[in-house]
Amino acid sequence: MDRLDYVRQQARFELARRHFYDYCQLKYPRHFADDRTYLKNVCDKVQWFSEQNQKRFLVINMPPRHYKSFTAGNFVEWRFGEDPSRKVMTGSYNETLSTTFARKVRDTIDETPSDGVLVYRDIFPKTLVKYGQASASKWALEGSSQDNYLATSPSGTATGFGANDIVIDDIIKNAEEAYSDLVLEKHWSWFTNTMLSRTEGDDWKVYVFMTRWAEGDLAGRIIDAYGDEVEVVTYKAVQDDGTMLCESVLNQRDYELKTKEMNPDIVEANYNQQPIDVKGRLFTDFTVYSSLPAGLHRRWNYTDTADTGSDFLCSVDYIEEGGDVYITDVVMTDESMETTEPQVAAMLDADQVNEATIESNNGGRGFARNIERLLKETHGNRSCVVKWAAQTANKEARILASSAWVNKHVFMPHNWEHKYPAFYKQLMSYQKKGKNKHDDAPDVLAAIYDRVANPSKAVFRVRTA
Q1: pTM exceeds 0.70, yes or no
Q2: Spatial CA neighbour of 137 closest among 191, 81, 98, 91
């Protein structure tokens, strides 16, 4: 190699040390070809987030077979080259995949130099795997007094390991898991109770690379829970103008062939990052009001007490104006009546409700009497009229019949998704078809529809408590 070629080579090495994308393109030129511009965008976003963004969570949603896992693994390699003192923990679907991910990173760092073949240590000569501490899923780097890397999964362990960077790679296996509240809750519990508890240092970061499945998948839960602390980057296989994200990775013909017999909901979720339960949900986003209509308005309440041990009490205060309903306050909880009765009574008094209707099914009549007593004895409130109503119509049919009106005429207060998270979750996850785990919130809005928009056909009988 003459001097000019040597200088050019060293310049490429220096660029690879400074820029994640240059590292990927130098080390894996076939995968990170110039025409795959979205991969440059992914790399630049990841590096910017790691070095400059003050947020804690990066969520990158990408279609399958678009080098999500490969890019995530490359980032861990580059991160160790940039700073060998960092500690990284990765999480994958199961122990087999997490170990495969870990082995690829370890073996890349540990590549043996060979004439004419570019290896990792050509770029990062000071980053070396420590001899004797290099198992597939847990290992250390030379110069470190403790382990630098741990691979785990929801069924694995992270005991005794702290991390500056947590990298999560696709942890949902299939649609069956995406439809399972139990599995999604297990993933969330693992992430919050195990992975997050392992973070250390004042610059810790979490990187989530995954295909979207459901609103309640890990990406969705992180976005909902941590809000402004989350940077979200989304790549759809099919762009809004009908072109493909990257023809050399997935062209139109292959896309149509692969998805021809696939469930359309899964196609939209996996390839276009439209969660299954978003596409099939009954309610779209509600309009949010910034202030209530001017003037005096009669204030109303409708309350559905918990029918069974797994149900929620849902109590909603509202006003009417010109055929529209403005929600003013909500109590929604699965606590016992000893807790919910004082909460509802306090809300009715604070909101100066004129008339409250308590659904009398399954103990609601006694609940209504207790609310009336608490209003008088605890709050000195004798102006709120408490009534009870026997509901006899089919619940699912009522919800479906009222949904179009509800979506158009019910207005929510600012920040309602955070003020009333259980209320928000039930409404925004309720499905048009299929079994819904909870229906308390949409049932109350259906009852409000009956009173406001369809009083002549109201299917419940009202009695004074």
Answers
A1: no
A2: 98
